[in-house]
Design goal:
By secondary structure, the chain is an alpha+beta fold. About 20% of the residues lie in helices and about 30% in strands. It is built from twelve helices and 29 strands. The two termini are about 40 Å apart.
């Protein structure tokens, strides 16, 4: 199997880059047409392009609306297309400029937040201006986020578009809070790697040709899949200035001649290498991207880093890509080239997998990420393989975004489990958090696998991706057992198969009760949603029982094969089931703990196992 590591480098001549007006115009009245701002922005774009070309890396130049009014930017882009093979594309970032504000009478700049009427007008305006300048329409576009309605309109109106930057991985409440509650870009819950978005919801990959929106989507930056989930993603990405923003480097110094050198950023190189390693889990294919505007390389510095370090970090990062290319370990592509490559090598149901380890804090923490058209989930080996994130893509939830919709800013795909927003394994005095785990009970003692650290090993078996965890040892007062867990993700199944097996026991005749459970809710932020309307049910061969959620803390159990929850507000049916009859149960939450729990119980002993499935379906 030949491994192929693909790189997209995307530059944009953002004539009025985010943040920069405040810096270049410090102490002056706001003026986004200030000449110093426009001149510096174009100079930085030229510098970024020169660095890439010096290292033999071709780029995708995403022209902004503002840059289309600048003859020098247009001419330079044409020149680089002819000389270096750079793709001329179009960004829906960089809208603010005098012409835009005069025409649309707004300071809004996030295309997904406009009304649908304005989105269509702006897209038509920008695309036609692009055609006026270049004589053709772009094959690639993008923004921080593109909602499904907008992608569908773009593809219908400009069918040549085949690739787009369409979301920013885990740019939700965590990023919002670290920007002093002022960065209203909320779109958690999407893929971290390229995907084909469905017509219904950008975050949810298409399951077949009928759902295919017609484009290949790529994320805005390649993020650290552990540090970014646990903390602010803006600090942990393969954009060198992200690493500087997160203070994850050793600064250099100036010599007597004013030259800056001696800086080191091994984390950046380790992050790039970890993305390279994802080929082991994805049939030899791995991907990385950098999406860069000039605002990051401001002459007055950014994030306590001087301009010299900003510049040098970009030089060094691009030089590392060049080294990998010389060694035959990297292929640089334009966005359009990548879209063709991805279409040729990927099926709709082919998942993205990432067995990701901590490369920042030096711990043994390890996450496994899985995404396909039916779900996105994360397993935490620091918690015995507990599921700490679950997004029900099977619902293909229609979620319109922007002015005039129920979601003006919040474009996140809702979760059923999110351990950081809904507590996870709960250590408070009351209530529960969202998690999918297993409890073992013996003579009244209970241990949750969330308290057991382990390590995972990945293999592909036919069309299934299998994750096998190292044995964990559970010590009761008079019994010690070792449990091995295996997770199987069968391609196209919309279910996660879990097998727990007792491989050792200090008393081979003793029995232990295994309690497989999922505690869940729904939402996009830390704040609770109304659980009214959810139904909880138990199903057996000759009997079924059901309640409507009323925050009354009710519980029920019986002999059966399945426990089921239907969550209408995210159009999802959640099923915990087994292939045999055992004890099935549900627990209704209450106002202080607005969750629900589904579970299956069975007693087993040494060399015995329990196999269960967690299945997601669309609930009509």
């Amino acid at each position: 199997m030949k491994e192929r590591f693909i790189l997209n480098v995307i530059h944009r001549p953002e004539m009025v880059p985010e943040y920069a007006e405040k810096v270049t115009g410090h102490g002056k009245e706001e003026n986004i047409s200030r000449k110093a701002l426009l001149t510096e922005s174009l100079d930085i774009f030229k510098t970024q392009q020169a660095i890439a070309h010096k290292n033999g890396i071709k780029t995708t130049i995403q022209m902004t609306y503002a840059s289309l009014f600048n003859d020098e930017a247009v001419a330079l882009t044409k020149e680089h297309h002819a000389q270096y093979g750079d793709e001329i594309a179009l960004s829906l970032l960089g809208l603010p400029c005098k012409e835009f504000r005069d025409k649309y009478k707004t300071k809004d700049f996030c295309i997904w937040m406009f009304s649908m009427e304005d989105k269509k007008a702006i897209v038509t305006d920008v695309f036609e201006k692009f055609h006026e300048k270049f004589g053709f329409y772009p094959e690639s576009t993008g923004s921080y986020y593109l909602d499904a309605d907008l992608i569908n309109f773009i593809k219908e109106t400009y069918p040549m578009v085949k690739c787009a930057v369409a979301t920013c991985w885990e740019e939700g409440p965590k990023a919002y809070h670290t920007c002093n509650n002022s960065w209203y870009t909320l779109f958690d819950g999407g893929p971290w790697n390229p995907w084909i978005p469905s017509k219904q919801n950008t975050h949810a990959p298409a399951a077949n040709a009928a759902e295919d929106s017609g484009i290949v989507a790529i994320p805005h930056l390649s993020r650290d899949l552990l540090a970014c989930f646990d903390g602010n993603g803006s600090n942990f990405g393969t954009h060198p200035q992200n690493v500087l923003r997160g203070m994850i480097y050793k600064p250099g110094s100036f010599d007597e001649q004013g030259n800056y050198s001696g800086q080191e950023y091994p984390y950046l190189y380790n992050l790039i290498d970890q993305y390279r390693s994802l080929g082991k889990y994805n049939d030899g294919y791995s991907y990385n991207m950098m999406f860069v505007g000039p605002g990051w390389m401001n002459k007055m510095g950014r994030w306590e880093a001087p301009y010299e370090l900003l510049l040098q970090s970009y030089e060094d990062g691009m030089a590392y890509y060049a080294q990998l290319k010389r060694e035959g370990k990297l292929e640089d592509m334009t966005m359009a080239e990548f879209a063709d490559f991805y279409r040729a090598g990927h099926t709709y149901t082919q998942p993205e997998c990432a067995l990701w380890r901590d490369i920042l804090y030096g711990s043994d923490k390890q996450y496994f990420w899985y995404a396909d058209p039916y779900m996105r989930c994360c397993l935490d080996m620091n918690q015995g393989g507990a599921m700490i994130d679950l997004r029900p893509y099977a619902a293909k939830l229609y979620w319109p975004v922007g002015i005039g919709t129920p979601h003006v800013q919040d474009a996140s795909y809702p979760f059923l489990i999110q351990a950081n927003y809904r507590a996870g394994y709960f250590t408070h005095y009351a209530g529960e958090g969202t998690i999918r785990s297993c409890k073992l009970t013996h003579k009244g003692e209970e241990v949750d696998l969330c308290l057991c650290r382990t390590w995972a090993h990945f293999e592909k078996q036919g069309s299934a991706r299998v994750l096998t965890l190292d044995p964990v040892e559970i010590k009761f007062a008079d019994l010690t057992v070792k449990v091995v867990t295996t997770f199987t993700f069968e391609e196209g199944s919309s279910a996660v198969k879990t097998t727990r097996r007792i491989v050792e026991s200090s008393d081979p005749t003793a029995k232990v009760e295994l309690n497989e459970y999922i505690t869940a809710c729904y939402g996009t932020t830390e704040y609770p949603e109304d659980m009214t309307g959810i139904t909880l049910a138990l199903q057996g061969a000759g009997e079924s029982r059901c309640i409507a959620y009323e925050y009354r803390c009710r519980e029920d159990q019986m002999a059966g094969e399945a426990a089921v929850a239907v969550v209408p507000l995210v159009e999802t049916k959640v099923t915990m089931q087994a292939a045999e009859e055992l004890q099935v149960y549900y627990k209704e939450g209450y106002a202080f703990s607005p969750m629900f729990t589904l579970g299956l119980k069975k007693e087993i002993g040494q060399d015995e196992e329990v196999t269960t499935w967690l299945k997601l379906e669309k609930a009509n």
